[in-house]
Specification:
Blueprint lengths: L9 H11 L5 H7 L20 H4 L7 H8 L1 H9 L14 E4 L19 H9 L12 H8 L25 E5 L2 E6 L4 E6 L17 E7 L2 E7 L6 E3 L3 E2 L5 E9 L2 E9 L8 E2 L3 E6 L27
Antiparallel strand pairs: 1-2, 1-12, 2-3, 3-4, 5-6, 6-9, 7-8, 9-10, 10-11, 10-12
Length: about 325
């Protein structure tokens, strides 16, 4: 079965980038002024005391844009002062609207535009990514071929095919009630309703789905969602990062006050050398959300009429 940044100033940006990359410079050390409790040399992550070690061990770093959101004074204060709501069983209640990441990840570096770069520069752009899936040697030619194809090769282009898990990333809304977790993502109006009973149907791996057959459970205060039963019709990312029908995705959610930490791990022994864990994304709780309507009607585009048919990201 087939299966913006607003004007932050050069110094502020340089300081944050240095912190996120763990670059030790006198200017960075002077400008960051982090308390000793927040400095974690050698941890492989942005030096933030908010991230509990039980969760951060699964991810090498926090994404720069979300690390900035977490360090913003208003968010840090909220995380420190706001209690973490819990459900009737004592678990953190993830219910709510989650967003307000700053800067918005959309439009950040990572957009590949052949029309703006020479092909070798585009290859360097992808190669410089510090956290990417490591494919078996025989599959890198395929990754490169997909990456340098036109945008319509990407499963996320056009209508009819959902972006899928894990590419759709952090849910915009979560409902936790009556032994279930509902994950709503605005991308393609994707909705996942997952049982919290920990019972796996032995036939789940026989399915060929976009979002996988998910099963949720608690590991302490961390919600773990394990999904199998994927097809091969989605990508892990716009760079041509494909996967096989043997993929297993493990997502982790942790709420602390008004912050939600999220990452995922992809196990795909058919094509990957080793499991790949994403960066840790951070979202803030939105207590006054706008009404969520249906997504706009999808409009098919003619690839040959696009000003830049290679634009993707």
């Amino acid at each position: 079965m087939t299966k913006t940044f607003r004007s932050l100033g050069v110094a502020a940006v340089a300081t944050f980038v240095a912190a996120s990359l763990q670059v030790s410079t006198p200017h960075a050390q002077q400008a960051t002024q982090l308390p000793p409790s927040a400095q974690r040399p050698g941890s492989g992550m942005v030096p933030l005391s908010n991230v509990p070690s039980t969760f951060s061990k699964y991810s090498k770093r926090i994404s720069p844009q979300d690390g900035f959101a977490m360090q913003a004074p208003q968010n840090a204060a909220a995380a420190a002062k706001a209690p973490t709501p819990r459900d009737e069983n004592g678990h953190p209640d993830l219910t709510g609207h989650w967003g307000l990441a700053f800067p918005n990840p959309m439009g950040q570096p990572g957009l590949r535009r052949i029309g703006g770069f020479e092909p070798d520069q585009a290859a360097m752009q992808r190669g410089a990514q510090w956290n990417k899936p490591i494919y078996k040697p025989e599959f890198w030619d395929k990754v490169r071929s997909l990456d340098f194809s036109k945008a319509d090769v990407d499963p996320g282009y056009g209508c009819g095919r959902p972006v899928g898990v894990p590419r759709q990333n952090v849910p915009g809304q979560i409902v936790q009630k009556a032994g279930q977790i509902w994950l709503l993502n605005g991308v393609n109006n994707a909705m996942r309703i997952l049982p919290l009973d920990g019972k796996r149907d032995p036939n789940d791996d026989q399915y060929s789905t976009f979002n996988g057959m998910g099963l949720a459970r608690w590991d302490g205060d961390t919600l773990v969602v394990e999904s199998i039963g994927f097809g091969e019709d989605t990508w892990l990312g716009w760079e041509g990062y494909f996967h096989s029908d043997s993929m297993k995705v493990t997502e982790r959610f942790l709420r602390q006050g008004n912050l939600l930490f999220y990452n995922f791990t992809v196990d795909d022994p058919k094509v990957l050398m080793e499991p790949w864990t994403s960066i840790t994304y951070v979202r803030t709780y939105n207590g006054t959300p706008a009404r969520m309507g249906e997504g706009g009607e999808c409009s098919e585009r003619d690839i040959n009429l696009l000003a830049d048919p290679f634009l993707r990201g």
